[in-house]
Design goal:
Elements: E1 6-10, E2 16-17, E3 33-37, H1 48-51, H2 78-83, E4 93-98, H3 104-110, H4 112-117, E5 122-126, H5 131-140, E6 148-152, H6 156-166, E7 170-174, H7 191-208, E8 211-216, H8 229-233, E9 236-242, E10 248-256, E11 264-270, E12 273-276, H9 280-285, E13 295-302, E14 305-317, E15 325-328, H10 332-346, E16 353-359, H11 371-383, E17 391-393, E18 396-397, E19 403-404, H12 409-418, E20 423-427, E21 441-445, H13 448-456
Parallel strand pairs: 4-8, 4-9, 5-6, 5-7, 7-8, 15-16, 17-20, 20-21
Antiparallel strand pairs: 1-2, 1-3, 9-10, 10-11, 11-12, 13-14, 14-16, 18-19
Helix pairs in contact: 10-11, 11-13
């Protein structure tokens, strides 16, 4: 009996080799190779044109190609439509990732109601739940459309047959890691299975003009599980972020072939599903303490949307030789750099203090305009001086302690004034972007010493 052939596949990038390797030569990751059986049948690699000559693709004149944006499918969820730059594109392939229990299935089930009410057929394929479980969630979300079909199946061949029979306009696959095809001998969730199922679903979407949404699991590091090629083949990649212990959720777009990749949608998890947060600034600032040191307000930009949020810092003396530094909701390395700037340029000694920085609301921000607010909050906690609650601080900080200009400063100032803040501190480089007629005082600063003089001595 002939020995079965095996190959080793990198679970991070899909690189294949005939022997096990400790480090992947393609992506550089360690201990990512898994063993898979090699199928003898190579017929699945034949060109589809040779087998389907009637449906062979033909070149088209550019002006004769129809506009995809003209036929976008509105999801009926304003925050989701914002992230998708106007809605789902017909024939698009979308990947939604997130931690277990974060609300991916809830969000996708919710969008079935408004889309189904427009008379569009939807096929919801669940590989992790039975049809009764999907029905239980739909009842909780008060979904009663007659155009929603539910299929509890993991075999891709049966799913393709159901799609051809129903011909829906939207297909939801929950999740891609549970799907399998008989043409691949490895187990469901393996690199080969995920890659092959992804290719076949992509072909199904493009050839039939069907919008396909797939759910992907994430690893412990927060990256989408499976080969990286899965992210390359889809049109849109959405990440659902948040803490299961808090109600806030953030839907972030990291790839979009049909629009902006900088937009985010904010939701709140309730007993009746996900609720849109139409005013993120009010939501993120709710519960802000008053009369306490170490709290500063700033305005960041997510795409075209300005959002006010609170930056908190805590500086406490420690008797240990190595003080701790922690950051939640922002880049840790940048916080360390800002602390060094604050100590060097402003003369605030923190060598015997533990420093903790937190962005409230469960949102993660990496924008440089957060720098000035982080420094202000840390200095406020170190000096035990309260920052006036009516001040908004905006600006990027350089290594020499200067405040550098930020983009879209006019929108940030307008949003701050609309939320009732009386004083807005901005970099001097943005002085000319102050809108006329706002009901707020705008102060421009050159460096962090001027900033600290304003916020710590403000009356």
């Amino acid at each position: 009996m002939a020995k079965a052939k095996v190959k080793f596949v990198c679970s991070a990038c899909g690189y294949e080799t005939g022997k096990w390797l400790g480090k992947c030569p393609s992506c550089g990751e360690f201990a990512t190779f898994v063993e898979e059986a090699v199928a003898d049948d190579k017929s699945r690699f034949k060109s589809p044109v040779a087998d389907e000559s009637k449906g062979a693709a033909r070149p088209l004149i550019l002006r004769d190609i129809k506009d995809l944006d003209a036929n976008r499918i509105k999801t009926g969820i304003a925050e989701l439509d914002r992230v998708l730059s106007g809605g789902l594109v017909c024939g698009s392939f979308t990947l939604v990732g997130g931690d277990p229990g974060i609300g991916k299935s809830t969000l996708l089930t919710q969008l079935c109601k408004p889309i189904g009410s427009e008379g569009r057929k939807i096929l919801y394929v669940s590989g992790e739940e039975s049809a009764s479980q999907v029905k239980l969630r739909a009842d909780r979300l008060q979904i009663d459309t007659d155009n929603l079909y539910v299929l509890s199946e993991t075999g891709l061949g049966l799913i393709e047959a159901a799609v051809k029979d129903i011909m829906p306009e939207l297909v939801i696959i929950d999740s891609i890691q549970t799907m399998y095809t008989d043409e691949v001998t490895s187990a469901p969730g393996s690199v080969s299975q995920v890659r092959e199922c992804g290719y076949r679903l992509l072909r199904l979407a493009k050839q039939n003009g069907i919008t396909v949404i797939i759910v992907g699991h994430v690893t412990k590091e927060g990256q989408l599980a499976g080969p990286r090629v899965l992210e390359h083949m889809v049109d849109t990649v959405l990440y659902f972020e948040g803490d299961k212990n808090f109600s806030g959720r953030v839907l972030r777009c990291v790839k979009n072939r049909f629009g902006s990749t900088n937009e985010i949608g904010i939701f709140e998890m309730t007993g009746l599903g996900l609720k849109e947060v139409l005013n993120p600034s009010e939501y993120l600032l709710s519960g802000r303490p008053s009369g306490v040191s170490g709290s500063a307000v700033t305005c960041c930009m997510e795409g075209t949307r300005p959002m006010l949020l609170e930056v908190q810092a805590l500086a406490s003396y420690t008797s240990f030789g190595m003080p701790r530094r922690m950051a939640a909701g922002t880049d840790f390395n940048r916080v360390i750099m800002l602390l060094a700037v604050l100590e060097k340029r402003a003369g605030i000694s923190m060598g015997n203090m533990d420093i903790y920085v937190n962005i409230t609301g469960g949102i993660r921000v990496s924008e440089p305009s957060l720098d000035a607010a982080v420094l202000a909050a840390v200095a406020s906690s170190c000096k035990n001086a309260v920052i006036n609650p009516d001040i908004v601080i905006i600006g990027e900080v350089g290594l020499t302690g200067e405040l550098r200009g930020v983009n879209m400063c006019e929108k940030r100032i307008s949003e701050s004034a609309k939320m009732g803040f009386k004083t807005i501190v901005i970099p001097s480089a943005n002085r000319k972007e102050v809108p006329k007629g706002i009901n707020a005082r705008v102060l421009a600063c050159e460096n962090i010493n001027g900033l600290l003089n304003i916020i710590l001595n403000y009356k």
